[in-house]
Specification:
This protein is about 10% helix and about 10% strand. By secondary structure, it is low in regular secondary structure. It has a two-stranded antiparallel sheet. Strand 1 (about 10) and strand 2 (about 15-20) form a beta hairpin. It is globular, with a radius of gyration of 14 Å. It starts with 7 loop residues before the first strand and ends in a 16-residue tail after the last helix. The model has no long low-confidence stretch (mean pLDDT about 80).
């Protein structure tokens, strides 16, 4: 499989486009997040900002 022919998806948390990886080959249909960080923040919807932080 050539890299330019890899499937891709959009992350459900951050909205980033990501491509197929070999480690996901057996579970590609169920992959929704681009990273472990996004998976752990899955309650956050793409485009929303964390309002708990206060900037000074």
């Amino acid at each position: 499989m050539f890299k330019q022919h890899l499937d891709g998806k959009v992350c459900a948390t951050c909205g980033r486009y990501f491509q197929w990886r070999k480690r996901w080959q057996n579970n590609w249909a169920n992959v929704r997040y681009c990273s472990k960080r996004c998976s752990s923040n899955r309650n956050r919807v793409a485009g929303q900002h964390d309002t708990t932080k206060q900037t000074d």
